[in-house]
Design brief:
heterodimer; A: mainly alpha; 10 helices; B: 312 residues; Rossmann fold; Alpha-Beta Plaits; 6-stranded mixed beta sheet; 4-stranded antiparallel beta sheet; 14 strands; 35% helix; 27% strand
């Protein structure tokens, strides 16, 4: 293993994160906080508690998840798309590094960025609402694994994308709708039976539900199902990375 | 000394069906400068890209420092530095940082003293904290060389190092390459600037349509394929070449310049008889005084065209 290279890529990516703190940290946090203010404080006061949890607190895990998914995808995809775009990809391809090491560097950094953002959002949310975490270990586990899984997907998107439009396509057209329909702002049990059944087809629901369970001990779907969904995400991502590793798809003609 | 690069029957056919390289075999000795010369699309960049790991070969094999470039890619690539044709840099990165990044990718521990030495040798030390997008094109190209040298490679690939740069910069780049060679680095460069290959390379390989047409020491190649032109400056202008001179010549004919003061004569350095003695004897017999004479070597471009025509 070329650990030096993994650390080099990882540090390089993290350096960009700290170099532009406004874009990388403040902007996702501010936009999430706006949700607290609008949904939690303004509207939330008029919405009744959800299964004993105040609405303002109820939406926090979902909002964190929403941000983690978006940030993981965009950070990881941008991280690997940028060298393709400016033409410095040759350096990664001609260095004595395996594809796995490249993935570890980029995906590891993207996942850590998301986790940092998530923690900052949680801490910020504490100013507005009281949010105890019932299962802190599980909360961290769900957070880290989700960040890692979606960073892996983001990395794959970055490899796949040939231009900026393609890079934006999946986060905007696929992930955002899935997150909004995945119970970030409500419990699936609040939906009419038909739509509740439809919501259960949405993979993001399982991630949000599992994460919320770690906070409040209440879940739309069994925790085991959430873990299974997470395992599927990770498994698909790893399988795709392995396939690229074998074939050099979109990287090495 | 065993070659540092051994290439056997290397070929590449892209998914589109384009045959970029077919059956290239060559050895490169440690410490030499090899120039690969050929028109655009000849396969030079594909050749370099395969050796450096950017492109997967379709057939054949290559060893770098005795390590197979596919099976033992880590050991092979660790010996190589690559300077790509396009100037590609991360625009907001700083010079020193980008060298640190390159060195780290090659698994080397941080060593700013070495990087300082590299930057100084490229006259970039003053710019170590500058952002890359603040640098001129020539400086960026030197940064790319610096990045390639950051891990102390034994082999340096320079893909069209002087493409699109002005004359001063080109000379500057040549000087950099000579210094590198003096430090023991093996250099493989591609170019379609013919005087560049002639000026710098110990050996020249000529590639066209994916085939290596020829690989020879530069001086030998110039000797064997070079034609020379002899120009005679006459004391008095002539209206026409004297009949006696033209009659005795076989092969190339001398030509008289419009002002009647210069006679030029192309001859083949490989021929048993160049015809020079006969030409001069002819002038002497006709009583024409020659004031001066000069010979001029043909350019590599002419050599190249000659070869490509022969090779079909």
């Amino acid at each position: 293993m070329n650990w030096q290279a993994v650390a080099t890529i990882f540090n390089h990516e993290m350096a960009r994160f700290w170099r532009t703190p406004w874009e990388s940290l403040a902007s996702p946090v501010v936009s999430t906080v706006l949700y607290f203010v609008v949904f939690g404080a303004a509207i939330g006061a008029r919405i009744q508690d959800v299964e004993g949890v105040s609405y303002g607190a109820f939406i926090v895990p979902g909002l964190i998840m929403l941000t983690v998914l978006q940030q993981s995808l965009s950070n990881a995809s941008f991280g690997i798309f940028f060298p393709k775009f400016v033409g410095t990809m040759y350096e990664l391809l001609s260095a004595p590094v395996s594809f796995l090491e490249v993935v570890m560097g980029y995906v590891g950094a993207a996942a850590l960025k998301s986790v940092i953002i998530a923690v900052v959002i949680y801490l910020t949310a504490l100013f507005f609402v009281d949010i105890p975490i019932v299962h802190p270990f599980w909360a961290l586990g769900f957070l880290v694994l989700t960040a890692f899984g979606f960073s892996l997907m983001g990395f794959l998107m970055g490899i796949w994308a040939k231009d900026w439009q393609q890079l934006q396509f999946i986060p905007l057209m696929v992930i955002t709708p899935l997150v909004f329909l995945g119970g970030a702002f409500y419990s699936a049990s609040m939906l009419p039976p038909f739509w509740e059944a439809v919501a259960h087809l949405n993979p993001v629901l399982y991630l949000v539900s599992g994460f919320r369970w770690a906070f409040f001990g209440l879940a739309d779907v069994p925790v085991a199902a959430s873990l299974a969904a997470l395992a599927v995400f990770l498994g698909l991502g790893l399988a795709a990375v392995w396939a690229i590793f074998r074939t050099g798809w979109r990287l090495r003609p | 000394m065993s070659p540092i690069i051994e290439v056997q029957d290397l070929s590449k056919t892209y998914a589109s069906g384009t045959v970029a390289l077919s059956g290239v075999t060559l050895d490169i000795a440690e410490g030499e400068i090899l120039a690969l010369l050929g028109p655009n699309g000849a396969g030079k960049t594909t050749f370099i890209s395969i050796l450096c790991g950017l492109v997967t070969p379709s057939g054949g094999r290559a060893l770098v420092g005795g390590h197979d470039i596919v099976r033992d890619y880590r050991a092979a690539r660790a010996l190589i530095g690559l300077v790509p044709q396009e100037i590609a840099v991360e625009p907001f990165e700083r010079v020193m940082n980008t060298l640190r990044f390159s060195r780290g990718l090659f698994g080397k521990r941080p060593d700013d003293a070495h990087l300082e030495q590299v930057l100084r040798s490229l006259a970039l030390w003053d710019k170590r904290d500058a952002r890359l997008n603040e640098l001129s094109g020539g400086m960026k190209r030197r940064v790319l060389i610096g990045k390639a040298l950051s891990h102390g490679p034994r082999i340096l690939f320079l893909d069209e190092p002087t493409a699109g740069v002005d004359v001063n910069l080109r000379r500057e780049m040549w000087a950099v390459v000579r210094d590198l060679r003096a430090s023991g680095v093996t250099i493989i460069l591609t170019t379609h600037y013919l005087e560049e290959a002639e000026e710098m390379a110990d050996r020249i390989g000529i590639i066209d349509k994916g085939r290596l047409l020829l690989l020879k020491e530069t001086a030998k190649l110039m000797h064997e394929f070079g034609r020379k032109r002899l120009t005679l400056e006459l004391a008095e202008p002539l209206a026409a070449l004297p009949a006696g001179v033209a009659e005795t010549m076989t092969g190339h004919m001398p030509t008289l310049s419009p002002d009647g003061l210069h006679v030029s004569f192309d001859y083949d350095t490989r021929a048993d008889r160049s015809g020079i003695a006969r030409l001069l004897a002819g002038f002497a017999a006709a009583g024409i005084a020659v004031r001066d004479l000069e010979t001029e070597q043909s350019s590599l471009e002419e050599v190249f065209l000659h070869l490509v025509e022969q090779g079909g």
